[in-house]
Amino acid sequence: MRRSSANLLFILVSLWPALSPAAEEKLDTGDTRYRSLETLARGLYYLENLYVDPTKVQTEDMVFNALRGIVANLDPHTMVMPRRAFDQLTSDTQGKFGGVGIIVSTERGKMVVVSPIEDTPAFRAGIKSGDEITAIDGTAIDQLKSGDASELMRGKPDTKIKLTVKRKDVEKPLQFTLVREIIKVKSVRSVALGNQVVYARIASFQDNTSEELKEILEKNAKDMRGMVLDLRDNPGGLLDQAVKVVDLFVESGVIVSTVGRSPKDVEREFAHKRGTFADVPVVVLINGGSASASEIVAGALQDHERALIMGTTSFGKGSVQTLVSLPDHSGLKITVARYYTPKDRSIQAKGITPDMVVQGQQVEVKSENLRKESDLKGHIESGDLSDLAKSSGIRTELEQWPELQKADYQLVSAYAFLRSMRFFGGKTPKGLKS
C-alpha cells in the first residue's frame, strides 16, 4: 500500500523522540532516501516545538511550504497549489464553475464586459457587451487586483452577488443582483464571416473542445470554403483534446510525440482518416499568448502542410503537465514529458514560427513623400460597374461582421487570404506552404 511523502513525514516526526540508539544506528546506515527524510522530519519537529512563535510553525503549513520550496527549484510549470487554486484549475479544464456567466477584460484598471455567456444569470439579467463593472458587492474595482476581482464573481451556486455597472449613454450606474449557478463554458465559439468562411475561436482546450469544433464543422460542411481557427491567447489545456482537434483535419501520420523522463519513454499519437474534414482550407491564427496545447495543434497542422499558420511567434511551452491530488486536498502540477511536432521539432523556448507574419494591428506608413491617386488634385472619381461588384467587395463583407471581429487586423488578413484562394482552386499558392 502506497503512502504519500507527507504521511511518511508525519510518521517520522512522531517516531523521532522515541527512537532507540539501535534504531538510530539502523537509520544512519540505511537507505539515503530515508536519511534525507529523517533530516527533514527532525527539522520540522524542532521548529514545531522550539520556535518562539508557535502560530508560524503549524505542521500542515510547514509541510506545504517545504513542498513548495522543493518545486521552486524545478521548471516554472511544476507547482504546488492550495486547495482553492487546485479546485479552480480542475473546474476550468472541465468547462464549468460556479459564477454569473460574464467574460471580462481588465485594462487600465477597468473591468469591461466582453460578452455575457448565453443562458446565464448575467445574460438573463440584461448585462451587455461593453458594460463596465465598477464595483462588486460595494467594493470598487480600482481597489481590487484584477485576479481578485474576477475571483469574486465566482463562488458557490445559489449565492448572491451585487454588481454595479456603468453603461454608455446611461446617466446613472445600474445595479444588478445576481444568483450564482453552475456555468458551463463553451470552449469554442464561431461566427460566419461571409463568403462561406467560418471563424472558430478556441479559448482553451477543455473536456469537450473537439466535440464542439466537430459540431461547427459538420454544421457548415456542405458549403464551407474555408475556416479561420483562432488559437491566439489560448494558454493550452488538455493534451488529448489538442490531439483530437488535429485529427479533425489530418487523415494520417503522427500528430504529436511525447518523451518522458527516459529517452525510451516515447509515446506517439496518430491521426485517423475516419471523420476527417480533409478538404477544408484552414488558416490558424497564433500569437505570443498561444501556448502548450495550442502550439501542439499549430505545429502539427504546419508540419502536415494542412493549414497556413498566420500571426506572430507563439509562446514556446513544449512540455506536458499532469495534475495530482494530495491528501490535504491541495494539488501538484508536475511536468512529466516534453512534446515534439510530427517532424520531431521541439518548440520549447522557441515557439511556433508562423508561415505568414502578421502583426496584431495594422501599421500605417505616413510620409509627406508618399502620395496616392486620391491625393492628386482633379483625380477621376471611382465608380463600380454594378451593384454586384459592390456587394462582392471585401470591404462590404467586413461591414457585416460583429464589431470585435471587424477591428481584428489579423483576422481580416486570414479572411482575405481564404477569400482569395478561389483564384487558386482552393489550394495554397506555392511559396506559402511551410
Provide a descriptive summary of the structure in words:
With 434 residues, the chain is of the alpha+beta class. The chain folds into 3 domains: 5-73, no CATH class; 97-184, PDZ domain (Pdz3 Domain, Roll); 188-357, 2-enoyl-CoA Hydratase, Chain A, domain 1. The protein is 31% helix and 23% strand. Strand 13 (254-259) and strand 14 form a beta hairpin.
Write the layout of secondary structure elements.
Elements: H1 5-15, H2 21-28, H3 32-50, H4 59-71, E1 79-81, H5 83-94, E2 96-99, E3 102-107, E4 110-116, H6 121-125, E5 132-136, E6 139-140, H7 146-153, E7 160-166, E8 174-179, E9 181-184, E10 188-194, E11 197-202, H8 209-220, E12 226-230, H9 239-247, E13 254-259, E14 266-270, E15 282-286, H10 293-303, E16 308-311, E17 319-325, E18 331-340, E19 356-357, H11 387-392, H12 394-398, H13 403-406, H14 409-420
Parallel strand pairs: 11-12, 12-15, 15-16, 16-19
Antiparallel strand pairs: 1-18, 2-9, 3-4, 4-5, 5-6, 5-7, 7-8, 10-11, 13-14, 13-18, 17-18
